[in-house]
Design goal:
With about 260 residues, this protein is α/β, with parallel strands linked by helices. The protein contains eight helices and ten strands. Helix content is about 35%, strand content about 15%. The protein starts with a helix and ends in a 26-residue tail after the last strand.
Length: about 260
Amino acid sequence: MSRSSRHGELRGVARAFGRLVLPQECAGCGRPDRVLCRRCRALFGEPQRCEELTQHLAGSQDPPVAPLPTWALATYAGPVRHTVLAWKSGGRPDLTGPLTAEMARAATVVSPIESPTAPGPVLVVPAPSGAARRRAGRFVVGDLADAFGRAVAGVSDGPVAVVDLLRRRSGSGHLLGAAARSRDRAQAVRCQQRLSPGTVCLLVDDVVTTGATLAACRAALEESGAIVAAAFALAVTAPPGSGVIELSAVSKETQRTLRSVD
């Protein structure tokens, strides 16, 4: 037996032993011997526009705020919810590969920006995460932004950079609950530096609920001089009382691919 064959056999034995000690199962449905089974992974489908499903991203008249084009790959329910929670809790770091790959795929399916006229690179900006999560090395939105940024760079005509610009302001908590999300949302997030006027930004998050966090991120970036062109997330929460939604049911008017930002 050659040395390479022996090494391959030893690696196989080690993997088998590892599965006996720490059994691997699908994070979505519990099927054995899968990090994320084919059926559960398929729930992260084609990216679809979803801002009209949220309270804070669909636009408003008072004060006038334009809708923020927002895309998601799945509805945050069932196996999708189990998967994302397992990853965010830190209990399943093995999900980083498949979930970041799904986010990168979104950038190749939807061209988020073409030939920007603004100076400098397009900035891919992760939504802020709590200090405790960062200290624990569980800044999963940063992982999603890195993967998305690399994919955008592969399809963009100009330079792209992933920049961790945003932080929660003291006292903003986790922006949970409808009342908390509505109250002073424009002040809940701060941008750590001024940006060149007209800098184009793309926001990345893991889950969109009411859209308050992304709205606060947008406000902070725009206050710093940027243009927020779009937002992308793994999943979106169905509105209360609607049950599990199919993203393809969102109106066709909102599913057009974004073009250039002037």
